[in-house]
Amino acid sequence: MVVTAGCMEAVVMCLKAVTKPGDTVAIENPTYFGIFQVIESLGLKALEISADPLTGIDPARLEKLIGRFPIKACVFVTNFSNPVGACMPDDKKEQLVRLITKHRIPLIEDDIYGELYFGKHRPKTCKSFDREGWVLYCSSLSKSLSPGYRIGWTLAGRFTQEVLRTKMIHTVTGTSLTQEAIAHFLSIGRYEFHLRRLRKALHTQCLRYIQGIMTWFPEGTRISRPQGGFVLWVELDRKINAYRLYQEALKHGISVAPGQLFSAQPNFSNYLRISYARPWDTEVEEGLGTLGRLIRNYRS
Ligand SMILES: Cc1ncc(COP(=O)(O)O)c(C=O)c1O
Q1: Which residues are CB-contacts of 85 (< 8 A; sequence separation ≥ 6)?
Q2: Does residue 30 sit in helix, strand or coil?
Q3: Is 56 left (phi over 0), alpha (psi -120 to 50) or beta?
Q4: Which of 82, 112, 233 is the best mutation target for the ligand 1 pocket, counting ligand atoms within 8 Å of the beta carbon and taking the most?
Q5: In terms of pLDDT, which residue wins out, 229 or 174?
Q6: pTM value surpassing 0.90
Q7: For a substitution probing ligand 1, which of 82, 87, 255 has the most ligand atoms within 8 Å of its CB?
Q8: Which of 146, 163, 162 lies closest to 154 in space, CA to CA?
């Protein structure tokens, strides 16, 4: 395991280990904008693959694209993706690992939301099906504890030495003091206790926010029903430009993420990502009410 400064550094180190500038990297569409930025800054090309809102990437579709494009690596958020909230079923994960192993294509699996499940069991990871080391698993404590600790990690399989070397060149080593403190917290069982409470709270907040959106937003609004994580993907009327709405909302002290941030194509200009990480209170309720009013009064 290589410890990193958060999940994003893990993804960067893994991408650097398995690609060179000009290479093509497959990502989900829509995908977390941080992944786009990294791909761009490393001089890579992104191949956006439509992902099912419930089950994520379809391995059969990926296989067809492997035949048509020189895909050098994949970066997928397999559990509760950001922004859609899709969770790839276990059998699809297994198929995906078989496929990338057959084609010898490294899969960088970003599992940052994996611990935040609402069901009885933690969803599996692609890494758990990886027998030949082609999956580079990345995660961190940023979503499940706090982003401020900057503690993440990667299990980079057959690329571990290359990732270690890249990490050493870039940051020499991680901060050992915070690692010591977190290691203590993990070893005394407090983390498990914290996670159990957090999952319950997030599930309740998810339902409360959905109810709020259904109350305040116009008829025809469509909302994702994630089974974990903490973001909702909301589809608005086609005439709404989510970026303009985002700017209007900011004037009222409301922060949402417009769909345009999550794809290089114009398909999501009427979508919003709304985080339900903040506990429900009257301010949130009023914020959703204001957002609903801005949408109803929107003039194109
Ligand atoms: C899918 C995904 N990966 C990585 C990150 C960044 O993680 P970290 O703060 O641990 O670098 C985020 C943050 O929003 C994310 O949504």
Answers
A1: 53, 224, 225, 226, 227, 228, 229, 231, 232, 233
A2: coil
A3: left
A4: 112
A5: 229
A6: yes
A7: 82
A8: 163
With a cut of 90, say whether residue 299 has pLDDT above it. no
Give me 53's structure tokens: 């809102």
pLDDT band for position 32 (50/70/90)? very high
Q: Is the pLDDT of residue 44 over 90?
A: yes
Token reading at 87: 């969770």
113 Cα to the center of ligand 1, angstroms: 9
Above 80 in pLDDT, residue 87?
A: yes
Give the closest residue to 2 by CA, choosing from 145, 109, 146, 156: 156
Q: What pLDDT, on a 0 to 100 scale, did the predictor assign at position 182? A: 95
> How far is C-alpha 154 from the geometric centre of its chain's CA atoms?
16
* 199, 116 Cβ separation under 8 angstroms: yes
C-alpha 112 to ligand 1 mean position (Å): 7
* Amino acid identity at 58: D
Distance in Å, CA 257 to ligand 1 centroid: 15
Rounded CA-CA distance 198/80 in Å is 15
d(CA 213, CA 205): 12
User: What domains can you pick out in the chain, each with its CATH number?
Assistant: 2-187 (3.40.640.10), 192-296 (3.90.1150.10)
In angstroms, rounded to a whole number, what is the distance separating the alpha carbons of residues 35 and 46?
Answer: 10
Atom of ligand 1 nearest to the CA of 142: 10
Report whether pLDDT(300) > 80: no
Quick: pLDDT tens for 202-214: 999 999 999 999 9
Ligand 1 site residues, Cβ closer than 6 angstroms: 6-8, 32, 34, 77, 82, 110, 112, 140, 142, 147, 152
**Ligand 1, closest atom to CA 9?**
11
- Residue 31 pLDDT > 80, yes or no? yes
